Amino acid sequence: MNNNNLFSIGEIAKAVGITRKTILNYEIKGLIVPDQKDGTTGNRYYTIDTFTQIRTIRVFQNLGLSLDEIREYFNDSSDLNPMLQRLEKMRDELNLTIEKLKERVRSTNDAVKEITIEPQTIYCRTYNSTSIADKTNLLRDTALEAMRSHGTDTTRRMYFTEHSANTPEEVSYCVAIPPESKGEYVTIIPELKAISIFHHGAYEEIPEARKRLLSYAEENNLKLTGVFRNIYIEGPPQHKDKSKFITQIIAIVE
């Protein structure tokens, strides 16, 4: 068909990076229709508007939406809030993964930064513990309890411990759980101001890294609450080599 305003199915497939079969499946699912069809050969032709629609379908597929959900989106026949919540969750998970990979590539201790910690719901148990082995086991036990009772919130860092500088042996073991969770040991942490550093190395070296936070606070006239938090980004589940552990160390600011 000699029409510069129309694209063949092959041109569309090549431009979007999909197969002819995929485009035909979009037709079967009722997502698109050919703008013109050759009655003799059966060849399909599409306008730039249909090309844009096909590209949108592909983007949504890559984000994990089903063809049925995409059809409802085009038809304005469904509540878009669940779709929006899924995409926001995916965005948050992706941001966490990007942050972790950046730290892994960096492989050295980062500079101190002033941050805001968003509110979150956690499952938290507090125990007296001193050795790293005990702390590791208690965090694992708390994580198991939390996941069995409530599941986990994958949009937040999964595990962290918290303690006061005055009572370092009294440690709170915390696990991120879904915001709607209720029950014993469930609490909501409000928004907090803090200073933070990413430590690359063994847990035994964390006290030295924490001193950098104290020095930064003193140099910048920041008053700390005395509460420190260790967020475990990469550790024994990912590495046997302790030098590859990554821990975000946080000091809460008043």
Q: Report how far apart the termini are.
A: 72 Å
CATH architecture of the largest domain, by name, is Alpha-Beta Barrel
Structural class: alpha+beta
The percentage helix is 25-40%
The gyration radius over C-alpha positions equals 26 Å
Write down the CATH topology of the largest domain.
Answer: Multidrug-efflux Transporter 1 Regulator Bmrr, Chain A
| Tally of distinct domains | 2
Count of DSSP strands: 11
User: Quick one: overall form?
Assistant: elongated
The CATH H-level superfamily of the largest domain is: Regulatory factor, effector binding domain
Order of helices and strands: EHHEEHHHEEHEEEEHEE
In DSSP terms (H or I, runs of 4 or more residues), the helix count works out at 7
Query: Biggest sheet, in brief?
Result: 8 strands, antiparallel
**At the first level of CATH, what is the class of the largest domain?**
Alpha Beta
- What strand order characterises the main sheet? 4-9-11-10-6-7-5-8
Detail the poorly predicted runs. none
If you average the pLDDT, what whole number results? 89
List keywords for this structure.
254 residues; 26% strand; alpha+beta; Multidrug-efflux Transporter Regulator, Chain: A, Domain 2; Multidrug-efflux Transporter 1 Regulator Bmrr, Chain A; 2 domains; 3-stranded antiparallel β-sheet
